[in-house]
Design brief:
Elements: E1 7-9, H1 16-21, E2 27-29, H2 32-50, H3 99-107, E3 114-117, H4 120-134, H5 143-152, E4 158-159, E5 162-164, H6 173-183, E6 188-191, E7 194-197, H7 198-205, H8 214-221, H9 225-256, H10 265-271, H11 274-287, H12 302-305, H13 307-329, E8 337-340, E9 351-354, H14 362-390, H15 413-429, H16 451-482, H17 490-502, H18 513-525
Parallel strand pairs: 1-2
Antiparallel strand pairs: 3-5, 4-6, 6-7, 8-9
Helix pairs in contact: 3-8, 4-9, 9-11, 9-13, 9-14, 9-16, 9-17, 10-11, 11-13, 13-14, 14-15, 14-16, 15-16, 16-18
Amino acid sequence: MLTTTDTVSLAGSPDTATLRRAAAPLTVTVDDGTRARIERGRRLFRDLRHGPPGAGSGDGDGGGGVDGDGGGGGGTGTRIYGVTTGFGALVGYAGRADEADQCDNTLAHLGAGQGPDLPHEIARAALLLRAFSLARGHSGVSAEVVDRLAAMFATTFTPAVPRYGSVGASGDLIPLAYATQALRGRGHAYLDGRRRPAADALTAAGLRPLTLDGRDALALVNGTSVTTAATALACAAVRAAHRSLTALTCLLADLLGCDPGFADDDLLRAYGHAGAVDVGARMRRTLAGLRPSGTRPLQEPYSIRCAPQLLGAAEDALRYVDRVVAADLGGVSDNPLFFAADDGGDTGAGGKVVHGGNFFGQPAAFAADMLASVTAQLGNLAERQLDLLVDPARNGGLPPMLTRTPGAQHGLQGVQLATTAFVAEIRHAATPAGTQSLPTNLHNQDVVPFGTQAALRSYDTAQLLGLLCGSLALGLRQAAYAGARTPTAARCGELLDALAALIAPVDPDRPLDADVRAAARLLAAGEGGVGEV
């Protein structure tokens, strides 16, 4: 079984790079300060749960989702949703008296997901994000829960989590319930890439099953970690594609002998948009040394001439998504939350429980929808640039489909057809999800954000965008073989050299699916400056 020496501390807030590292085994540590925060939150929960009535806020009678908008309940102390109550629309009914039994009451009915399992990197990133959230000490969970989550990451154990079932309104209830059940030894999980019963996977990984009470179980499922993780990973992939496409646009311009004036600094500053100014600066660095051929039209097609404006608008939009992702990564999204009277020390019952709606994933829904729009337009740009490159009427006299023997060979014809299909798939998935609210849960959840749908679709389309960049890169490499000029800008030459070292010329025809994927991986990795500007 794989192991690692990579280490992550739960003391701070994660970034997207940290979430990406969770795809492989890593050591997750809980330092003394973090443990003290968790234990203070647990003591506060216990004191409020068992203390005199009236301590804490305990506001709200009426329906909560497994989200719990209301405080329901009973007990000798403050009313706390999910401790002795039912869940969701059934909050007004008593739950199960035994705390361990209340865990099953939380989880069993949420086993209603369907569809293929989530990608492993999303499932593990979501649980790492859940560990960070619980470690902030506002969820009232036991330190043992965080310790067991941390132990999981040292192995390849990955819960099998079905894709469909979350509306993102009360957090990602159904997918997180599957993840939690797997950690209890129920359902299924993967170990070293093999799907098997979760109990067997835990044993083989040397992990102990989680033992939970109702508070622990609710805190594990009642957050937006799947939505946030998928949005963060999708944004990272789109950012990588954006960098790649900026560099590939420069290489296209150099191979065709275009005038680089479309990236002029004065021009783009007059445009007034910060993203375009910054993208233009990157393009000028890559285009430094370019010598126009003098044979191109006075004005290039928009897929070249307007690339700084398009890529700049994408940059501005991605900065918005970055801010939302950063806020979600640093936030606490479950319900209810527990707040001590001060930031340190043993506060005892000197604190409050607050029932609210931090599990409502609307920010990520809007951000993921924005990300899908960016992906669609970047994908369209890559497809249009490849179309220009294979068309002898616009590519400066290169042969059709970039083959030296048209008819006997077909060069990039299949790749160009596939890119059209990729763009169609992306466009279909770019319909906003965050405005598609449907009431559910006996109208307790009468508005929902559908952030999970938006995030997972953005993740899917980001993968297709990477393939579009790989297809364009393959086309540029083939254009050089088919008769395009040698790049005159040093950085463009370096990019072409890296692609040529990876991909042989297409002559004679061969299947190119693996070449497209290889080019996409090279660009995403940014090795040797490839895909960076």
